[in-house]
Amino acid sequence: MSDSKPSKPLSSEGSIPQPPGNNPAITGYDPNNKWTNYFNILLGRMTPAGQDEFREAAYIKNEERDIARAEEWRDWCFNYSPTVIFMKKNIEALNGDLNVMNVRCRRCPARRDEKGNLHRQGGGFNPEAGILICANEMRDRKHLEDTLAHEMVHAWDHLRWKVDWDDLRHAACSEIRASSLSGECRWTREFFTRGNWTLTQQHQNCVRKRAVQSVMNRPSCKDDVQAVKVVNEVWDSCFADTRPFDDIYR
């Protein structure tokens, strides 16, 4: 889940439910006072809930800029990224087609669960609609390239094996492969972006963690225990399967 949390199709339309009675005196977030918000963040006076609201407001304000930037990065990937070009050719070999017309960059509102917690995503894949890139969540071109590669692995899997995305075992297998092959779990990404300094089994641990998180986000998954169980059941065969690559390159 991006970082990217794929690959259930998610809409970028609509607005997030707001928490009941946001009180600036409590959260430190005042939608009508920009500079107070900045100072509250710098001084540690804004609560996590307030920071969530501050971020969502900034995403709405910067939506046009974020989408334009993401589209520029997307176009660069289709023209120059070896991974994206390779995946595009292999998808075409299975009679599929991914291009700038069905890889859409949009603002993705965060999803609020029943406890009021916000959940973000980097992108998603829909067999009918194509790929969604969440423009507001993309840090830079490399981040978008990893997210796009992740979703393209899902697209290849769907064409190659007719994945049943409602089957948790199918979904877990594709999530394992996408996280492993896209580059989002390479050591430099973990070290510099996520602060994970582990030197042994880092790649495997990252892939497993991201696969479990993605399975947990699916409606048919009961809890984290079931998610871990499903990922473990398919781990050996799915992690070892690097098709259409010969090996893990990124």
Pattern of helices and strands: HHHHHEEEEEHHHHH
- The number of helical runs is 10
Arithmetic mean of pLDDT: 86
Structural class: mainly alpha
Overall 3D geometry? Answer: globular
| Quaternary structure type | single chain
Span between termini: 18 Å
Write down the Rg: 19 Å
Hey, roughly how much beta strand do the residues contain?
5-15%
Give the total of beta strands. 5
Strand order in space, largest sheet: 1-5-4
Largest beta-sheet characterization: 3 strands, mixed
- Helix coverage percent of residues? 40-55%
Low-confidence stretches: 1-20
Describe the structure in your own words.
- The protein is mainly alpha-helical and 250 residues long.
- The chain contains 10 helices and 5 strands; from the N terminus they run αααααβββββααααα.
- The strands form 2 sheets. Strands 1-5-4 form a 3-stranded mixed β-sheet.
- α6 (141-161) packs across α7 (168-181).
Question: How are the elements arranged and paired?
Answer:
Elements: H1 24-27, H2 34-42, H3 48-61, H4 63-80, H5 82-93, E1 103-106, E2 111-112, E3 118-119, E4 123-126, E5 130-134, H6 141-161, H7 168-181, H8 187-194, H9 202-216, H10 224-240
Parallel strand pairs: 1-5
Antiparallel strand pairs: 2-3, 4-5
Helix pairs in contact: 4-5, 4-6, 5-6, 6-7, 7-9, 7-10, 9-10
Keywords:
single chain; about 250 residues; mainly alpha; 3-stranded mixed beta sheet; 10 helices; globular; disordered N terminus
In short:
With 250 residues, the chain is mainly alpha-helical. It has 10 helices and 5 strands, in the order αααααβββββααααα. A hairpin with a 3-residue loop joins strand 4 (123-126) and strand 5 (130-134).
